[in-house]
Amino acid sequence: MAQSRMGLGPWEAFHQGISRHTGLEIGTASILVGIPVLLGWIPLGQKPGIGTVLNILCIGVVTNAALRVLPLPEMLPMRLLWMVAGILTIGVGSGMYLSAQLGAGPRDGLMMGIYHRTGLSVRVSRTVVEVTVLILGGLLGGTIGLGTVGFALGIGPVVQIVLHLLGAPPKNQQPIPASGVIQPDTPLTH
Predict the structure, then answer these.
(1) By mean pLDDT, which of 104-108, 141-145, 171-175 is the weakest?
(2) CA-only gyration radius of the chain, Å
(3) 82, 126, 174, 190: most buried, per Cβ within 10 A?
(4) Could you tell me if 45 and 59 are in contact, meaning their C-beta atoms sit under 8 angstroms apart?
(5) Per-residue pLDDT reduced to its tens digit, 2-25
(6) SS (H, E, C) 105-156
């Protein structure tokens, strides 16, 4: 998506904004942002796993490496193709690793926490997270464009579809009341 020059995904725009203010590479900013994002898990009741640690470390390293070696397509149809391929690749990859249930990455953990805590769909939960981060990324000077909006609105549905196709949609739990206590006799919603 970055090489398409059609706009970064919201998180990458946020990382790029941080990069522009600090001089860090985008992938390095991603690694560093992943750690405090985990604090957002606390009120959502999410628990990290090995997938969480691997996501924090690998995504940023791969981002830095890919930006160094991937070519920059010049023709608009190819740039659009790269943008759509980026959204689909990230959505399919997210659905696949989440279905393994070895721990969500920091950003996906926010989505899953909102999903479990509120009863909203995966699609809506992810869209809420992405639109919020899109605004923050724009305020920090990250590259916003058609790809950013496409990602913010498209990634949630792709992840939800992949989870469903893999037969591993996450079990939706009853929304947790403000008291934090779920009555044991209350049935869970699906």
Answers:
(1) 171-175
(2) 17
(3) 126
(4) no
(5) 788 888 889 999 999 999 999 998
(6) CHHHHHHHHHHHHHCCCHHHHHHHHHHHHHHHHHHCCCCCCHHHHHHHHHHH
**Whole-angstrom Cα distance, residue 41 to residue 114?**
9
Q: Kindly state the average pLDDT of the residues 133-142.
A: 93
For residue 154, with 0-12 CB atoms within 10 Å meaning exposed, 13-18 middle and 19 or more buried, which class applies?
A: buried
Question: How far, in whole angstroms, is CA 104 from its chain's centroid?
Answer: 10
Mean pLDDT over residues 117-139, rounded?
91
Tokens (6 digits) for 48? 């990290």
In the chain, DSSP assigns E strands to none
pTM for this prediction: 0.76
Tokens of 83: 């943008």
Sort 176 into a burial class: Cβ within 10 Å, 0-12 / 13-18 / 19+. middle
Q: Are 119 and 172 in contact (CB under 8 A)?
A: yes
- Answer yes or no: are the C-beta atoms of 56 and 28 closer than 8 Å: no
